[in-house]
Amino acid sequence: RVEADLDLTKTLFTEEQIQTRIAEMARRIEADYEGRDLLLVGVLKGAVMVMADLSRELDRHVEIDWMAVSSYAGTKSSGVVRILKDLDTDLDGRHVLIVEDIIDTGLTLSWLVANLQSRGPASVEIATLLRKPEALEMPVDVKYVGFDIPNAFVIGYGLDFDEKYRNLRSIGTLAEHMYS
Ligand code: PRP
Ligand code: MN
Ligand code: MG
């Protein structure tokens, strides 16, 4: 195991639980998008692991593109999101599925959905591995959710604390001594 696993207070989801759930999400996505082209849009950097595993689990052709957005610098409530790297793909008439690691306040995703909707796609939906219902500040209509989790600081499987722990295979809560 990675040494960093020692910084986890508690494992929320093991590698096996994550992969099982992603496979279930993939079966639903395959069924829902049957006969339609599908563009997966990943949000850097947290979504990298979900995108890698979800896209490979899908037994069909997909296209993959990426966006990088700044998370509302400064105060969390501003809701201001800035595009750091835009898509290479024209969304006109496309079926777009945004792939995220986590929806926390919902500010990033509510802004992103509106932004992508304005580009004339055929549809825009969201697949997120994690969601924190208690932290939600903006309503976000999410079609595919892996797990609803309590309002705690979670790391691993793409999720970072100060840019670390993204490479853990499991997801857990960070030990308090690591950030206090
Ligand atoms: C995290 C996470 C989501 C977003 C969710 O990204 O990966 O993209 O925050 O938060 P919200 O629902 O409150 O908007 P972050 O901005 O930390 O960037 P990262 O993906 O590069 O870690
Ligand atoms: Mn992110
Ligand atoms: Mg982050």
UniProtKB/TrEMBL annotation:
GO CC annotation terms, alphabetical: cytosol
Full protein name: Hypoxanthine phosphoribosyltransferase
Required co-factors: Mg(2+)
E.C. number: 2.4.2.8
PANTHER family: HYPOXANTHINE PHOSPHORIBOSYLTRANSFERASE, HYPOXANTHINE-GUANINE PHOSPHORIBOSYLTRANSFERASE
Transmembrane segments: none
Species for this entry: Aeromicrobium flavum
Catalytic activity entry: GMP + diphosphate = guanine + 5-phospho-alpha-D-ribose 1-diphosphate; IMP + diphosphate = hypoxanthine + 5-phospho-alpha-D-ribose 1-diphosphate
Keyword annotations from UniProtKB, A to Z: Cytoplasm, Glycosyltransferase, Magnesium, Metal-binding, Nucleotide-binding, Purine salvage, Transferase
Subcellular location: Cytoplasm
Residue ranges occupied by any Phosphoribosyltransferase domain in the UniProt entry: 15-161
Family to which this protein belongs: Belongs to the purine/pyrimidine phosphoribosyltransferase family.
Transferase listed as a keyword: yes
Pfam families for this protein: Pribosyltran
